[in-house]
Amino acid sequence: xxxxxxxxxxxxxxxxxxxxxxxxxxxxxxxxxxxxxxxxxxxxxxxxxxxxxxxxxxxxxxxxxxxxxxxxxxxxxxxxxxxxxxxxxxxxxxxxxxxxxxxxxxxxxxxxxxxxxxxxxxxxxxxxxxxxxxxxxxxxxxxxxxxxxxxxxxxxxxxxxxxxxxxxxxxxxxxxxxxxxxxxxxxxxxxxxxxxxxxxxxxxxxxxxxxxxxxxxxxxxxxxxxxxxxxxxxxxxxxxxxxxxxxxxxxxxxxxxxxxxxxxxxxxxxxxxxxxxxxxxxxxxxxxxxxxxxxxxxxxxxxxxxxxxxxxxxxxxxxxxxxxxxxxxxxxxxxxxxxxxxxxx
Length: 345
Fold this sequence. Notes:
Layout: H1 5-20, E1 26-30, E2 38-42, H2 46-68, H3 74-100, H4 102-123, H5 130-158, H6 163-174, H7 177-203, H8 211-260, H9 268-302, E3 312-313, E4 317-318, H10 321-344
Antiparallel strand pairs: 1-2, 3-4
Helix pairs in contact: 1-4, 1-7, 2-3, 2-6, 3-8, 4-7, 4-8, 5-6, 5-7, 5-9, 7-8, 7-9, 8-9, 8-10, 9-10
InterPro entries: 7TM_chemorcpt
Transmembrane segments: 47-66, 78-97, 136-157, 169-189, 278-297, 309-328
Subcellular location: Cell membrane
């Protein structure tokens, strides 16, 4: 049976190619004669260029905010300044984290390749999920970046005098999507590998009397559980930072929208469309990973007697539907505090 391990490479290679130009670690697919193909990490100075570019963008945006600041728009400027600092901190943080965790990030790919070979050995057929996983990743990229472009365009029409600030805002906001995309891609591959096993079990009506097959099945489940742990170790710091920054950004954005609708905006229709799309983008950004991992947990618990698969971010909160409830509750609470504070001021 022909191995399709390079299918995983074909899935992750485009993302790592984009990473080369964004300051993230550079990975190359290396194949030596007589050796297995594998990813290798290459040294690069793009990190320093990316750090310099983000710092310059932050400095220019900061200059624009202070140069336009007046007593009549103190609240708006405070919101802009808060979000600007958060974006800058987050983008610098993920660049540094990606390089510190570069070996762990690539270790997940090698583990996924190995688990794929075990699944092929167990099911005795080539995996069929690669196209499905690629389509899921592609849909996420198209939807998220299309929303960012459309939102930036609509806001530029509403506020033509601030179009450069808006472009900087949306670029700073969407930069971390490149890093988040790798996590989503890993989870999608794991989810589809679970699907492959479960389809195999359904085809056998759960009557696996062969001890060797049962041993291989337990080995695959154990390996996928270990891969989930590797993903957690590689990305939990980023997920914690993302949870904090997303809560603050969403809260300040919702507060700003409430203030806007206290007075009917001039371009009411465009503002409404922009806000609806904004909340769509917020929901996709905040909850996609939690929903995918919830599906993984469900698949894992459905057909195995092993311990329940749990994904706790830095030991603080689970990345599942509970995270969604926590995020909504936190944002609601912060918005209430902001509204009350604004009334006092």
